[in-house]
Design a protein that fits this description.
With about 180 residues, this protein is mainly β. About 5% of the residues lie in helices and about 50% in strands. It has helices spanning about 75, 170-175; strands at about 5-15, 20-25, 40-45, 45-55, 60-65, 85, 110, 115-125, 130-135, 140-145, 150-155, 160. A six-stranded antiparallel β-barrel has the order 1-2-5-4-3-6. The radius of gyration is 20 Å and the shape is elongated.
Length: about 180
């Protein structure tokens, strides 16, 4: 299994107890829809399979896992802070109409006044709103994703048209 044949779901945050139980933090939105018979943990740039004995999903984007052959805290310690992947064929199907802000990663942002700004590299969910990060001339340009700023989304061309508040782009240019 390679990273190209899999998708990232989160990482092991810590051990729990002495019998090798670990906590997994999900960075995958639909973690409740995932199947967990085998997980792949990235160790030294290679994916190592771990078979799941038991899993207790929590509401706060975490789960407690007991993995086969990880029966002691020392064995669990080696996978703490490691990224966790699942095979691509375990990716839950989503309704094509179920569009999310995170789907905009990779889209080209074009501002009505400033023109082409760059590609969205990250979408973060903050308590009040979603924020998009754009690689703008090697700098991270942040702007909120909301209906007031978004003029249009072209899913086929992967283009997001926006009208950002006046002066926002200038802040990132470093103009006086």
């Amino acid at each position: 299994m390679t990273i190209e044949q899999s998708f990232y779901i989160g990482y092991i945050t810590k051990t729990r107890g002495l019998k090798g139980e670990v906590q997994l933090f999900f960075e995958f939105e639909d973690y409740m829809d995932l199947e967990f018979d085998v997980l792949f943990v990235e160790v030294n740039k290679k994916l190592v399979p771990y078979f799941v004995d038991t899993i207790k999903l929590q509401k706060n984007s975490t789960a407690y896992l007991n993995l086969e052959d990880v029966d002691h805290i020392d064995k669990a310690q080696v996978i703490v802070k490691k990224k966790v992947y699942l095979p691509n064929d375990k990716m839950p199907e989503r309704d094509p109409d179920d569009f999310r802000y995170t789907d905009l990663i990779g889209y080209l942002v074009i501002d009505e006044n400033e023109g082409e700004l760059g590609e969205i590299t990250q979408v973060q969910e903050l308590p009040q709103q979603f924020m998009a990060s754009v690689d703008f001339n090697g700098q991270e340009l942040l702007f909120p994703l909301n209906d007031d700023l978004i003029l249009g989304i072209d899913a086929e061309e992967q283009v997001l048209e926006v009208e950002l508040p006046e002066g926002l782009v200038d802040l990132y240019r470093g103009e006086e």
